[in-house]
Specification:
The complex is a heterodimer of chains A (384) and B (727). By secondary structure, chain A is mainly alpha-helical. In chain A, 70% of the residues lie in helices and 1% in strands. Chain B has five domains: 2-43; 59-226, Penicillin-binding protein 2a (Domain 2), CATH 3.90.1310.10; 230-576, DD-peptidase/beta-lactamase superfamily (Beta-lactamase, 3-Layer(aba) Sandwich), CATH 3.40.710.10; 597-649, Trypsin Inhibitor V, Chain A (2-Layer Sandwich), CATH 3.30.10; 652-727, Trypsin Inhibitor V, Chain A, CATH 3.30.10.20. The longest helix of chain B is centred in the first third of the chain and has 30 residues, at 14-43. Chain B starts with a helix and ends in a 15-residue tail after the last strand. Classes of the chains: A mainly alpha (384), B alpha+beta (727).
Amino acid sequence: MILRKGKIDYLLLLAVVLLVVIGLTFIYTASSAKAADRFNGDSAYFLKMQIIRVIVGLMAMAWVMRVDYHTWIRRAPLFYWLILTVLLFMLFMPSSWMIRGTRRWIDLGFVKLQPSEFAKYALIFMLAKFLSMRDLDIKRFFDGILPQLILVGLICGAILPEPDASSALMIFLIALTMMFAAGARLVHLFNILSTGVLIVFAGFLVIPYQRERLFSFISSLRNESEMSWQVKQSLISLGNGGVFGVGLGQSRQKMHWLPDPFTDFIFSIIGEELGLIGTLGIIALFVFIIYRGFRIALNAPDAEGRFLAVGITTAIGLYAFMNMAVITHLVPTTGIPMPFVSYGGSSLMTHLAAVGMLLNISYQSSLRYVKSRYGVRHASRQYF
Amino acid sequence: MAKGRLKKGSPMSREDVRILLTEIGLLLFAGVIVIRLLYIQLWERSKYEAMARKQYVLEIPLEAKRGVIYDRNMNALVMNEPCISVGLDKRQMEGTSQQYAKRLAPVLGVSASWLRNRIRSVKGQFVWLRRRLDVEYAARISALNLPGIRLEKETRRVYPHHEVASHIIGFTDVDNKGIEGIELQFNDILSGKDGFITIQRDGFGRAVPENVIRREEPVDGKSLVLTIDYILQTIATEELRHAINLYNARSGTVIILNPQTGEILAMANEPSYNPNKAGKYSFDARRNRAVTDAYEPGSTFKIVPFAAMLEYHLKKPDDLMFCENGVFMLRGRRIRDTKAHAWLTMQDVFAYSSNIGTVKMALELGEQRLYEMARKFGFGRETGIRLPGETPGILRPISQWSSFSLASMAIGQELACNTLQLAMAYAAIANGGELLNPRIAREVIDADSRKKPASYRQSLGRVVSEETAKKLKHMLIRVVEKGTGKPAKIDGLQIAGKTGTAQKPLSNGRGYSQTEFVSSFVGFFPADRPKYLVLVKLDTDQENQWGGKAAAPTFKRIAQKIRVYDRELQSEKQFTQRNGAHGRKVVTQELNGIILPDLSNRKLSAARAILEGLALKMSTEGKGDFVLNQKPAPGTRVRKGQEVVLQLFEAVVSDGYMEMPRVLGLSLREALSKLSMLGLSPVVYGHGKVVRQKPEPGSRVRTGIRVVVECEPEVILPTAVKVGYEQ
């Protein structure tokens, strides 16, 4: 009886799986040319790699879905300090370990990981833990917001010099959104936001290529010919796709015109091949995920689940829309992948696992409802 | 959903409001992106579609062959030579511009820093590194195997005769666009119209030759035949140079023209320049002084008042005039003759070039008639020659004359003309009184080798009556027979001419220089039926100022050489009687070195005639009717009687078609040499080994057709490739 009443949010799961499938489709069409060029005609190379990750990611999601979300909150300090150590270690690792001139990735031999993706969720757990503490008054600054701010600052401070200002900025925004949702005072938030943005922008300005990107973005708003190659190609992809697109697999921009057509700029190829229908469809799926995510947050059994859900949903939504904003030339080019869709292991696996958590929260809230109605005492840990 | 709130049984909590606001914020973000997407994919769609179309096609230019410039005897004065331009497609670069610069610099022969700046400074995706290099560079550059390097085969202008006729022909810039001389003036005719092939390409700029969208064949430029005679031009160049050295002159001009038709046969200036290295010369050396510079003609201008006196019947050649014993006061100024004369006939005033006699005549003539006659002779306006930068000279209207102007102008001061104007004025006397339009372009040859005249004999009006012209001609003969022009006299060839000496006006306009003079002589021969008019102008120092001293002997040397060259002049009775068979030999000895013309691709008979004309011996190697090569090389200075060895070749009779050779799998260098040996012009794409060719090997193609050759570097992939795309 109890077991049957407890149900998971299949629609949310469906939306996520749909995005993953669309992602795989477009990773294949967008990468086949490059893969064939690089890997002796194996046009499905990148697809195969991503399928492995999807399988691993879905397994992770299935497992996380069955684990009580309180576990993550409880273990949050462990994750947090662990990932911070890793991030600090990366700042001091020998330069021969650097990949593409940065310290963003760590090569474990069989797989390259991007710890900032994991750090994001460790911080979300940590903040969910803090924000749900009964004796914490979020309205106060020194004993309310400041401790969390220090947690945020440590993580962002470790990511910023990798250099990865965009990830640092994104994590900072997610954390701030969580504090806002928890009821922090707007004055505090405004001051923190302006300080943080200033620091990140200073980071932008210190790092030459970031500064160049920023300046070229500003000048490209005035003068289109100043636009960077990548953004120009991205807009050509979208515009050439028009309303109905050029047809699945028919993209010409992926023929080495658009750089990174299956990682950060996969949305452009979707827009080219499926047109406005495709891009609006993707947005609709994300909007639906956000909608369900916030419903889960509002219905969460407790404050921990509530803030965890807010954090996860915000992370997914912000990453998705910020990625689109880059592609549509609304913000300067930053290395933000599209959750579930873009090629890349760390982003896919962490986001899928996070969806697992959302599903667990929704399951537990439905269970809670049943329990209150029928007086069932224990919500067993064996949910399925 | 709402159940959560119902369950708590409380109104929406403040935290719920914050969460909903967060949600709304994120959805607003999504809304902004939706609007932006609508704008890009709906509103601005056509703009991006156009951008996409534009970048998917690649236009490979097919260079039109620039027309050749010939002299009147079809000697090529400029030729096209295959060359290589080196470009870089920056998107395909693998490595920094610094690395590229370091590797390319030693091969291209420029400094690495220059190259790096060049790569960086050009904004677009494509940058030319060096244009129009020797073909030999191609092999060395493709051996570097640098991705993104593009080699384009082009042609460049080569001027085989170096300084000879350089001022007439001019030169072209790096884009093969004429920027001086004939190359500039007739650029539209010579350049033709470039064609192109448009093909599909991917983002690496790799073309797919099978996907030719459009092909527009280039329209080759038309060739031009000038009125210039290369041999006469060489004579003029050599003798001018000789005179410059001999008389310590700063600069000078020689013009040879046909007074009956107005055709310019030679036009030489010093200082001169080599158009193959035009950039290394100053503007001073490059300008065609004969038309761009105006100078005070001095005594040579006296022909104008004398023509007017005779035309208006104010005096007859035998009328006596008092020449004031060398000094004549006019309105407070002193007019001098170089030699004091008392009474002279009018023709002797001219023969001895008496300033006093001339001025007195001008006073009788009056301002209006002198001015009108000067205008009729063409002074004060362009001759209309089709060469760039002609100056009209200065002939002020009477209203601007001072009280002394009439006297000054009669002796060729207070006015200026270009050298060609003066030559055309004397040509009018030589041809019986008609001012002609000077001609430089004779014929245009279109792509089908059809010749069309580029100019006709064109009269600009009658200057004087035939009778007056005849009287003037006799006066000019008298100048050479017994007057100031005696140094120009040649036994057996009747010459009519006039000397001129002028001081150069000071640049501040106040008076005349005491150190800079213009010595000139203009004359024509044979006097009874003038065929050649020669004008010599030398900018000399004080010692050699007199026209009779520097310019007239130079004229004589040129005239003697012309007589050697032109058999018609030799057949004159007097000549053969006096000098017999030796006459020719004697004169040819004066040919003290001549620049050897380019004889390659000429018919053997034509080459033999040219060498005979230059008094050079000839021997041949090999069989055939055409000259393949020559020793010494074209442009070398040779002495008279020196032997020139001609290598011959048999012209292959061709129906205009040939079999397309197979170049697949060859290296770019091998393919290039194979194709160019067969006269096929390749459009090269990429680098490394040839992977595609169009047309297919073995197909029947027109000779000289353009061939698309696509190359790709050989890439050896490492066995295990690590992925760099995990994020």
